[in-house]
Specification:
This protein is α/β, with parallel strands linked by helices. It has helices at residues 35-43, 74-88, 100-111, 132-138, 142-162, 166-174, 180-191, 197-203, 218-221, 231-236, 256-268; strands spanning 2-6, 11-18, 21-28, 51-56, 93-98, 116-122, 207-213, 240-244. It is globular.
């Protein structure tokens, strides 16, 4: 584990790093989730083993510190990630972002295209509105969520865990160290994503890929959502489209081996 003090926010950002060869992979997790349980099983698969990877925990989640000074805006998340990359001396990286991490990765490419060699967005939000769970959190008043709504959410999730829900079990582990206020702030940020974000993503002049879970893919569901855009639109703008069989929005958290089989060839090209 590595850490970097960020005096601006009076806190520490932490990341786990796997040594290896080739262009480094920057792994950005989903909504307020810890990076290690999200990405380590995937990185241990034959298709990805041996690659250098930086698995970053956002401020307010995972192993990173909390901060009342950090506003959880998209620009602040990008600033913190840039600080990690500069401290680690990576040079340009392959960005692999899941859900919120895909959105942060896109914003990183807007702000610092010199640090992004390849961008792989895994059901990241590209239009405002958020997913159902994100909207539910953002729908609370912040104080009400911190003082009551969060506990209610934890109770429902734990009941699902005890009933054998695999993805609920992942979330219970991955959000174990979360700051409830930061979770709410991140949800509001995604729901209120700026208009024109998708158009800017489509206009980026770098190699881009978008990864869907089969159960989320518009060809399966018949609908386009903020984190499952129209694949025809993506292809028309030069974005590679990939589908992981048998999974939903959880992707690598649901099937690390299946995800690696789909994404591994894309990353091997780096």
């Amino acid at each position: 584990m590595h850490n970097l003090a960020l005096p601006k926010w009076d806190t520490v950002i932490r990341w786990s790093e796997l040594p290896g060869e080739g262009r480094p992979i920057l792994c950005l997790p989903g909504l307020s989730s810890a990076a290690l349980p999200t990405f380590l099983p995937m990185m241990m698969q034959p298709e990805l083993r041996g690659r250098r990877a930086l698995m970053v925990d956002y401020i307010g989640s995972g192993l990173s510190g909390h901060s009342a000074l950090f506003g959880s805006s998209l620009a602040e998340h990008v600033e913190a990630v840039v600080a990690v990359l500069e401290a680690a001396g990576t040079g340009p990286v392959c960005v692999l972002g899941h859900s919120m991490g895909g959105t942060v990765g896109i914003a990183l490419a807007f702000a610092r295209p010199d640090l992004v060699a390849r961008l792989i967005v895994c059901e990241g939000n590209v239009t405002p509105g958020g997913g159902a769970a994100t909207r539910a959190i953002a729908g609370f008043d912040r104080e009400d969520f911190v003082n009551g709504g969060y506990a209610e959410m934890l109770a429902r999730r734990h009941a699902a865990v005890m009933a054998g829900d695999v993805f609920a079990n992942f979330l219970e582990a991955a959000r174990g160290g979360v700051d409830p206020g930061a979770l709410h702030d991140n949800s509001v940020m995604l729901v209120a994503l700026e208009e024109g974000f998708e158009a800017r993503f489509l206009a980026l002049r770098l190699e881009r890929h978008f990864v869907y879970g089969e159960r989320s893919f518009p060809g399966t569901t018949g609908k386009v959502t903020p984190d499952a855009p129209d694949p025809a639109l993506l292809r028309a703008h030069g974005v590679g489209v990939h589908v992981v069989p048998g999974v939903g929005h959880g992707l690598m958290a649901e099937d690390a081996a299946g995800f690696a089989q789909v994404v591994g060839p894309v990353l091997r090209q780096a």
